[in-house]
């Protein structure tokens, strides 16, 4: 499928799923079910509804199982391509293996459940001619103790069970093709390394905060929570 017929999304689906063992010994992590469908199928359906007709799956571990399940994507109304790593390349390194990437495209993990509007996220990035946009979710760290502030051995402050808000990457990014110039070829290169380079070179990276639902189902606690909450979220997403 040519790039001008629809939006393109790259889905990172080659992880080992170590945190979900023993469940992922048999199934690749993106095929872990949420309700009656694998999480990766949920993601592809969400993307399809927002005009993403070309899906590139970056695969490695158990790639044949993913190919057998999804095929060419026609069952889901999209075109699916498979980009196979012969060695681990991190989150950003695999992009150099992909042919004819468009001017702007989404890159995302294949194991997240969220209600982010992928279409609006993409449009905001494209319309502003951005280099890189990160979708972020608000989280809060609770310290379950009374925290002492001290000057040497003297108490100067006390806070009972403080909560600290922070933003985390959701594992959903929108990229300009210009980003490829910053990623070395044929070596492992991660999102973290790319962000540190951008900061060092004072490149402009946008962060779009998502106020809605987001879970990383690669974490066992989040996976079981996702299974419990899926009926309500499915209704909200119209899937």
UniProtKB/TrEMBL annotation:
Gene3D superfamilies to which the protein is assigned, alphabetical: Spore Coat Polysaccharide Biosynthesis Protein SpsA, Chain A
Q: Signal sequence: where? A: none
Nucleotidyl transferase domain mapped to chain residues: 9-228
Pfam families according to UniProt? NTP_transferase
- InterPro entries with a match to the protein in the record: Mannose-1P_guanyltransferase, NTP_transferase_dom, Nucleotide-diphossugar_trans
Query: What domain of life does the UniProt record list for this protein's source?
Result: Bacteria
Name of the featured protein: Nucleoside-diphosphate-sugar pyrophosphorylase
Native organism is: Hyphomonas adhaerens
Q: What is the lineage of its organism?
A: Bacteria, Pseudomonadati, Pseudomonadota, Alphaproteobacteria, Hyphomonadales
